[in-house]
Write a sequence for this structure.
């Protein structure tokens, strides 16, 4: 018989839905056990001890009763590690934050611990909470870094990037690499040189460098399209777009 154990771990709230009159079903991305679903009984009562800790994008310390045979665990405690309240004050930061947690929810398997992905999400939400400018730079960066964690790292080579001397080059949807316009990679996608260089920075540079990247609106739109198409090719229909459509 499977034994029930008490688990205490840090978590990022990915989504929550109302259940019954007073409870919520919450999807958590935990440091210890990866993505799990929990039942938060009484979470919607006015005096609930859960408070605002179960809102999407919250970074929390949770305690739940874990039983391997269950698909839904029972949440007993939740408290903020960091509330990230500032990112909820502006539409651009809300948009990026919700797209990040939606992406993680869509691409990660249940109960598959991914400590590198967890650290990436927390770092991105923390930066989003305090960033004043260029918050949109986080979105392509997180997508490409998460792809790397999940085993489909973009094959960006500096020499090939620098070999793009004309106005356009190519992105390979198959390997995520950037190539000169006369190359013949698998599943090529033609793109402007500025967008391909921005793509390479987001794929290979650290977050501080990415946040300093200053892009014209047209280049940013093209970059986001390139990243989206690469991830859609790699993850098929698992790639989500619901939050973007709603917002």
């Amino acid at each position: 018989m499977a034994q029930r154990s008490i688990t205490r771990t840090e978590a990022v709230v990915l989504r929550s839905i109302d259940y019954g009159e007073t409870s919520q079903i919450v999807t958590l991305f935990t440091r210890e056990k990866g993505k799990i679903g929990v039942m938060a009984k009484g979470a919607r009562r006015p005096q609930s001890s859960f408070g605002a800790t179960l809102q999407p994008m919250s970074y929390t310390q949770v305690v739940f009763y874990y039983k391997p045979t269950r698909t839904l665990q029972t949440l007993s405690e939740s408290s903020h590690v960091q509330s990230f309240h500032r990112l909820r004050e502006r539409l651009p930061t809300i948009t990026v934050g919700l797209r990040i947690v939606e992406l993680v929810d869509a691409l990660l398997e249940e109960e598959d611990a991914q400590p590198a992905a967890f650290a990436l999400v927390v770092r991105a939400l923390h930066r989003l909470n305090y960033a004043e400018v260029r918050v949109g730079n986080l979105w392509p960066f997180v997508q490409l870094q998460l792809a790397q964690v999940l085993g489909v790292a973009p094959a960006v080579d500096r020499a090939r990037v620098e070999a793009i001397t004309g106005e356009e080059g190519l992105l390979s949807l198959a390997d995520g690499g950037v190539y000169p316009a006369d190359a013949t990679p698998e599943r090529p996608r033609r793109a402007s040189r500025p967008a391909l260089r921005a793509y390479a920075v987001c794929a290979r540079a650290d977050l501080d460098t990415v946040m300093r990247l200053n892009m014209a609106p047209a280049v940013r739109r093209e970059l986001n399209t390139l990243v989206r198409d690469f991830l859609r090719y790699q993850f098929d229909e698992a790639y989500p777009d619901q939050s973007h459509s709603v917002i």
Notes: Residues 217-235 form the longest helix (19 residues).
